[in-house]
Amino acid sequence: MSKLTESARKMLEGKNFVYLATVNPDGTPQVTPTWVDTDGHFVLINTAVGRVKHRNVKKNPHVALAITDQTNPYNLVLIRGKVVEHVTGQVAEEHIDKMAKKYRGLDKYPNRSPGEQRVLIKIEPVKVITR
Amino acid sequence: MSKLTESARKMLEGKNFVYLATVNPDGTPQVTPTWVDTDGHFVLINTAVGRVKHRNVKKNPHVALAITDQTNPYNLVLIRGKVVEHVTGQVAEEHIDKMAKKYRGLDKYPNRSPGEQRVLIKIEPVKVITR
Q: Residue A27: its chain B contacts at CB < 8 A?
């Protein structure tokens, strides 16, 4: 049973950015906006292997997310969670194309660097707050 | 000399929300959207005394912020910084009214709880990245 509420799921399914916070190895926080997806249970983030947020969650799986509605910034969902899986390979490569479709209407993700490998990060929601 | 670039200053002066990440006492990250201001040198955040973000930065002054342009979410400023001052009293109370004016066009901040004390958190920017 996922902790995602109906309103949290809708926000994650919408064309909204999520602000993902992780902790750096030196104990300082890090935050970046990113595209987001959900399978109804997990929060799904797709990033490139070796980027700061990927390196951070490999060492410290605890994350926090804030999502606001693009059309109303006072409509807010906060999620605390834990990264439970890192998926690379074809699934992750196809998933970034799905994200490019969702957010930009494109069939292929256009910003791949040469040799870039994508990773799909699965986050188990621990606490979900809707405001 | 502040590390704030001209474009970072403009983003902070604009009617944009900032996503402020702090670290909880248990080492997990926390992130919330908030109103923001700058005096040209510091990043200024106004919160209520005793709230999670205030408690966190009293224990661990390291913060990270992400700001995107309301009108173009791909226009991004990332700031790593350190809380160097906590100002309470009249200055902080007047400052939240200034924020209510900036973001909502109101002369007085309308959401004060009974007995609420405001605190103006001054953040020294350590690293500023504009994308």
A: 23, 27, 60, 62
Task: Tell me the shortest Cα–Cα distance from A94 to chain B, in angstroms.
Answer: 22
B1 in a structural domain: no
Which residues in chain A are closer than 8 Å to B111, comparing Cβ atoms?
A: none
Question: The pTM is what?
Answer: 0.95
Does the residue A1 lie in any domain?
A: no
Q: What does the pLDDT profile of chain A (131 residues) look like in tens digits?
A: 789 999 999 999 999 999 999 999 999 999 999 999 999 999 999 999 999 999 999 999 999 999 999 888 789 999 999 999 999 999 999 999 999 999 999 999 999 999 999 999 999 999 999 98
Which range marks the domain in which residue B79 is found? 6-130
ipTM for the predicted complex: 0.93
Could you tell me if residue B116 is inside a domain?
yes
In a domain? residue B36 = yes
Q: Answer yes or no: are the C-beta atoms of B100 and B21 closer than 8 Å.
A: no
Determine the Cα–Cα distance for residues B101 and B95; give it in Å rounded to an integer.
10
User: Phi/psi of residue B49, each to 5°?
Assistant: -55, 130
Minimal C-alpha gap between B67 and chain A (Å): 9
